[in-house]
Amino acid sequence: MSSSEEKGPLPVTPEKEVPPPQFTHGGDAINQHRDQEDFWTRNGLNLKSFQRRGDGASIDSLDRTMKTRHLHMIAIGGSIGAGFFVGSGKALATGGPATLLIDFSIIGIMMFNTVYALGELAVMFPVSGGFYTYSTRFIDPSWGFAMGWNYVMQWSIVLPLELTVCGITIQYWTKDVNVAVWITVFMFAIIFVNVFGTLGYAEEEFWSSVLKLGATVVFMIIAVVLVCGGGPEGSAYDEYSGGKLWQDPGAFANGFRGFCSVFVTAAFSFSGTELVGLAAAEARNPVKSLPGAIKQVFWRITLFYILGLTFIGLLVRHDDDRLLGGDNPYINVDASPFVLVGLDAKLYGYDSFMNVIILVSVLSIGVSSVYGGSRTLTALSQQGYAPKIFSYIDRSGRPLISVLFVCAFGPLAYVNLSTSGVVVFDWLLALSGLAALFTWGSICLAHIRFRKAWARQGHTLDEIPFKAAGGVYGSYLGLLLVILVLIAQLFVAICPVGGGFNDVEGFFKSYLALPVVIVFWIGGFIWKRTGWLRTDQIDVDTGRRELPWDEINEYRERLAQMPAWKRVLHTVFV
Q1: pLDDT at residue 35 is higher than 60
Q2: 253/264 Cα distance (integer angstroms)
Q3: For helices 504-511 and 471-494, what crossing angle results, to 10°?
Q4: What is the pLDDT of residue 26?
Q5: Angle in degrees, 0-180, between the axes of helices 197-227 and 179-195, rounded to the nearest 10
Q6: Residue 52 bridge partners (DSSP)
Q7: Which of 85, 88, 234, 566 is the most exposed place for a label (fewest CB within 10 A)?
Q8: For 312-339, b where at least 16 C-beta lie within 10 A, e where not — what string?
């Protein structure tokens, strides 16, 4: 087989009225540059490391030390945090166990298709620093501007939220020390991890994900025993219960309003799943490591969310007053159903163990917020969508100014200490709760538009090295689910769970993300004066990654010789 046959037909670049961003891939050069630096400079441990990198300092100058094991663990456990361990308690109280399971499953299906679409695009087009650029390239540059700034804002707001949860988690053991002290300690811990740049983030995520994965497996083993009545004598689980709580107090709570309300908690819990696509740009060989990492998302959805929350629904009553968590259940670890199970089972010490896991999880999300926000801001700067100062990349490959910008939002955590702090916290949560949905919908739409332009310009699916499991139909399903969830949340914003109709303040606390995105979109249009790209304007050839087609074709041949069940296993799960 000739080289041209292996790589498919020669690309034909269409005439373009609006040129897309130009992407380059300099992984080998960047790794070589890094290897030339001494140990202390490479790892950001001396003053020289803070100097501007002298190789043009493009976004492709970011550090490329992430390994396959890092990407796999980021995919399977990287974004598990307060939304899952603590916020699921509020979701259970609001909608009941059946709603909890159904809503998280729907968001899980959405994420499965979204991450696969992202994986297909990321393997084809190496984008360092921000997948918002797929919106710029395949949808509308103004919308890409909005999605980039929306993503930066989302993570900048999540940082103080997670710091607040860290501080209050410590109060489970002692209230003698002011929460502000703990917020400060954890803020410096997050900054310390980010001093080590990409490698610091990758190692922290790897080990924290290992811990979260292990704790979840332990929880499910204990949960099986408790459901079967194997709890200590005199505990709430000393006799077989099975699905009793689905009958009394019932599988659903608060009717249709409760069902719609849980979606925002589920979306908040899944936020960060897409980070594996962002992190792949800083891996040494993303073509090999990213597809395997993308396939781990299935196990996260089924193992962490679906199985874990199924057991929660079997063990914790949805009318338990402790789930309400006082003023704000997102920051009260006493309201965590995982902690309540340990208390009710009289497993002394297990509640503290789960709080340690919650603390590690929340700290991990804080580190991820700095990583995701800073990389996207740097990409925005270098595409001309943000001030040029944010394009600064130092000699160890860190986007230094962007990291400092995101970290500057951390002190917002202190406002929760005031009497009106809960109100401020609610507004911050309103900004971040739905923001991820717009990102996920844009990824699905970008994939749909890419496939349409790809076919229009004479390319075949065989030229795509890693294809989304559900194809373009999976992206249509993902986009449809995003739209339905946004409609459901609009309904809840107007008709809250408590009954009646919301006032203006209540509406915007539930739906603030939409007007913010619209403002960013209008701002992008005013700045760039560009609109929706027609299919023949989309360039699918510029910046495509050079791919090892010999290896890809050899793998496809091996796959074709496997039995049908094994092909499905390797295509979707392995």
Answers
A1: no
A2: 16
A3: 160
A4: 45
A5: 120
A6: 394
A7: 234
A8: bbbbbbbebebbbbeebbbbbbbbbbbb
Both tokens of 45, joined, read 């441990």
Phi, psi torsion values for 418, nearest 5 degrees: -80, 170
Evaluate whether 434 touches 489 at the Cβ level (below 8 Å): yes
**Listed residue (369, 375, 368, 366) closest to 131, CA to CA:** 375
Q: How confident is the model at residue 281 (pLDDT cuts 50, 70, 90)?
A: low
Q: What is the pTM of this model?
A: 0.86
The string of DSSP codes covering 312-376 is: HHHHS-TT-GGGG-TT-TTS-GGG-HHHHHHHHTT-TTHHHHHHHHHHHHHHHHHHHHHHHHHHH
Phi-psi region of 125 (alpha: psi -120 to 50; beta: other; left: phi over 0): beta
Beta carbons of 322 and 340 less than 8 angstroms apart: yes
Mean pLDDT of 514-529: 88
**Mean predicted confidence (pLDDT) in 529-539:** 86
Question: What's the pLDDT score for residue 451?
Answer: 95
Radius of gyration of the chain from its Cα atoms, rounded to whole angstroms: 24
C-alpha atoms less than 13 angstroms from C-alpha of 188 in its C-beta half-sphere: 5
Residues 456, 231: contact at Cβ < 8 Å? no
- At 566 the three-state DSSP class reads helix
Torsion of CA 97, 98, 103, 104, to 10 degrees: 60
pLDDT reading at 409 higher than 50: yes
Residue 242 has pLDDT above 80, yes or no: yes
Determine the average pLDDT of the residues in 415-438: 77
C-alpha–C-alpha distance, residues 308 and 220, integer Å: 7
Q: In this structure, which amino acid lies at residue 177?
A: V
Is there a contact between 329 and 323 (Cβ–Cβ < 8 Å)?
yes
Closest CA to 153 of 400, 389, 386: 386
Which has the closest alpha carbon to 115: 234, 319, 341, 293?
Answer: 293
Residue 569 host element (H or E): none
Residue identified by tokens 């729907």 is 106
Strand-pair partners of 283:
66
Fill in the amino acid letter for 269.
S
* C-alpha–C-alpha distance, residues 260 and 268, integer Å: 14
* Residue 52 main-chain phi, psi, to 5 deg: -65, 135
8 A C-beta contact, residue 464 and residue 120: yes
Residues 177, 185: contact at Cβ < 8 Å?
Answer: no
